[in-house]
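Narrative summary of target 7.
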Amino acid sequence: MDTKKTEQAFILSKQTGAFALQSINQLLWPAVCINCHEIICETDNNLCKNCWDQLLTSTGADYCHRCGRDAGKFAMLAGTCPDCQGKEICFDRIARAGVYEQNLRKMILAFKNGRTELDSILGFLADSALQGGGFCSDIDLFVPVPLHWSRRLVRGYNQSHVLARKLRSSKAKISTDLVRIRRTKAQPAMTSPASRAKNVAGAFAGRYRHDFAGRKICLIDDIKTTGATLNECSKTLKQAGASKVFALVLAVAGQKNTS
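Modeled conformation, tokenized:
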């Protein structure tokens, strides 16, 4: 057998061995969906078909780029939807991955409660929303919405910061110079937009020698409901000199009228 045939035989045996090892590994330790734990193929990108289908259902609708709520293209008037006209919105534009329902809701809640391995899917969704949001190339800084230090200590991580690390940008860096200076009640416990706004009023500040002046900033958060938290963060950043404040969220909740 000449050298060329010997090399071909070696390559073939190596490929056969790798395939056999992969098959044994799949048999003994099968890949599972990171959401529902059903057995999947290793090529299914961490989710089963049913979970992918539900995510696509939650992420496929048109939305208002001023407030993030569901809105058809022909319902927009001067860049706003009927729901957000006349409302105070302090950020300049918003991009969202989807609506807060079905598997997207389930995954976000799990992500906030220790399931950090979901960052691969949720980070992909957030980055996809960012790339299609119309302001990606303008961003100078990604600013995760901060947790109070006591909540950060208990949870062990800030889910918004984890998401920020998954975002692609040619120039934007992550800044943690926006801090929460007052421990607030959990926003889901608030029953009205007014109570949510009051809950977070004055809760944020920029660190000493922050780098926000003249910058275009993208706030990162997991969920937007009434927008009270994003509004308060945006006010703080603009008072600190930011020229523009955009927002990126995984999901927008409260699709029913919140007026």
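The chain has one domain: 64-252.
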